[in-house]
Amino acid sequence: MKFNVPSKQLFGNLSILGKIVQSKNAISILDNFLFTLDDDSIVVTASDSETTMTVRMPVFDAEGSGSFAVNVKNILELLKELADQPVTFTVDDERFDITLDYLNGQSRFVGIDGAQYPQKDEPKGEVVEMQLGCAEVAKGIVNTAYAVGTEEIRRIMMGIYWDIKPDNVTFVASDTHKLVRYRNSKLQPGVTTSFILPQKPAQVLANMLSKSEDGANVSVTLDERSATFETADYSLTTRFINGKYPNYESVIPKNNPYEMLVDRLQMLNAVRRVSVFSSVGGLVTLDLSESEVKVHTQDVDFSTYADEAIPCDYKGQSMVMGFNDDKLVEILGNMPCEMVKLTLSDPSRAGVFMPEKNEEGEDLLVLLMPMMI
Questions:
Q1: Hey, is 221 helix, strand or coil?
Q2: What distances in angstroms separate CA 77 from CA 18, 71, 100, one per listed residue?
Q3: Residues near 136 by Cβ (< 8 Å), separated by ≥ 6?
Q4: Which pLDDT score is estimated for 359?
Q5: Angle, nearest 10°, between helix axes 264-274 and 325-334?
Q6: In terms of C-beta density within 10 A (0-12 exposed, 13-18 middle, 19 or more buried), how is residue 328 classed?
Q7: Beta strand extents in 175-272 (DSSP E only)
Q8: Distance separating alpha carbons of residues 55 and 131, to the nearest angstrom
Q9: pTM value?
Q10: For position 124, what pLDDT does the model report?
């Protein structure tokens, strides 16, 4: 086999696929990329046994056909150090010795017969198909991924829940302390279903979709245990997290009577500064009054404290709320807006953060549980 491919394009695609590969695999061949030469294109595959991703690229001066596997670390480190230039792969079809020729040099290493690479499972059970806008799906993942849980004991919380209705898709993530709900009615699947997408493939999917052209769609195919996402160049198949996701709507306060409107960046930067002096546990208090919010932290053990006052528009009775500083920074740092609205009822109940104005067809809401003062 022989083919020529631009090094920069190959490195960019392999970098995306490389995020699938685990540092330690139970099956050693999964430490490799699978290259399959087919006419004038090369299909590269990466897998960790739970998730499989492929990319198709055009190649030049192709000779022969077949497949071979290349160590992920070796090929990425080599391509990273190459300037943008043509790279020629020459593969011995019997011994799978691989030679890479580039403008000012040559590298040789041993590959593996591609026939040893595990094949992707066939769909199982009932199949559901839909077309969704790439940009809107990527936005749903980006707006929720930071809130995904990390505790193995609550495995169903370690992914993004897709609540799919005929006229909208709702993305939900929660670590039980905070919850993000992002609903997009610009997505019109035409079906009703749901699944929990693990965090790692979700983030890879968002990166994959960001490479799509404006207005492009991703084809989504669901069976009883996995989802496949396909664009013009990429394909990602991953297994769901099994289990029933909690009723997220039941924990969202419906009638918080008090409301604060504040500049997101001013609030974010103030919390970051005062949190330097917070105690173990990261308590930051918000003292709310009509025209300003006072942000306060202290550490009694070390006799330190910090206060800042930020202008705001607050409608409600004076109140002091306590939140975890890291979680507050996460929320404010990830909200895509200039002004943030915080609705409250009392210091013992969750605060609800949302943009002052949502984009048309979008509804973003973030819930954060308070800390005892």
A1: strand
A2: 11, 10, 13
A3: 184, 186, 187
A4: 92
A5: 150
A6: buried
A7: 178-184, 193-198, 217-222, 226-230, 234-239, 258-263
A8: 19
A9: 0.91
A10: 80
pLDDT at 119: 84
pLDDT at 123 over 80: no
Q: What is the mean pLDDT of residues 291-296?
A: 95
Q: For residue 251, what are its two tokens?
A: 């924990």
Q: 325: which residues sit within 8 A by CB, 6+ positions away?
A: 271, 274, 275, 278, 282, 283, 284, 297
**b/e for 272-305, b at 16 or more Cβ within 10 A?**
eebbebbeeebbbbbebeeebbbbbbbbeeeeee
Q: Beta-carbon neighbour count of residue 22 at 10 Å? A: 14
Closest CA to 46 of 292, 183, 238: 238
Q: Cα–Cα distance between 69 and 156 in angstroms, integer?
A: 34
List the one residue out of 373, 361, 366, 355 whose CA is nearest residue 253: 366
Please give the structure tokens belonging to residue 21: 């590969």
Tokens of 45: 């595959």
pLDDT at 125 over 90: no
pLDDT at residue number 227: 95
Please give the pLDDT value at position 302: 85
Nearest CA to 169 out of 147, 148, 149, 195 is that of 195
Name residue, tokens 């930020």.
310
CB 352 within 8 A of CB 363: no
